[in-house]
Fold this protein.
Amino acid sequence: MATDQKLELVRSVPMFCRLGRSEQEQVAGLLDEVDVPAGRVLMRQGDPGREMFIVVSGTFRVDRDGRQIAERGPGSVLGEISLISEGPRTATITASSPARLLVAGHREFHDLMDGHPAVKMQVLEGLAEKVRVLESDGLH
């Protein structure tokens, strides 16, 4: 994926859309592209998390405690809690179809957040919004 395409995808993600161009470019520069086959478990509930993913194409099933709670598609961010902490994953996420992802590692993203408080603030606001949505849906 070309750098311009990564940048456009970063801009379309609510967690990053309000960042300045420079910060968006730095986020895009951290992302590696990965293809995932249908049926691949991307993360398991309870396992440690060390990266986050942005869905470029494909769909993912989100399960918590053995039951499906959501489905995510293009533009979704998965595993972003790992940007703040390397704690256990809160859900199991499985590719429902062949998919393409952009992935950012915990250490690299933490270095970016440490150097750019605006990025850290946007990540925290994005997490807060996700918690609000989960609470309003009764999915806790």
About this structure: The first helix runs from residue 3 to 12. The chain has one domain: 3-136. The CA atoms of residues 4 and 28 lie 9 Å apart.
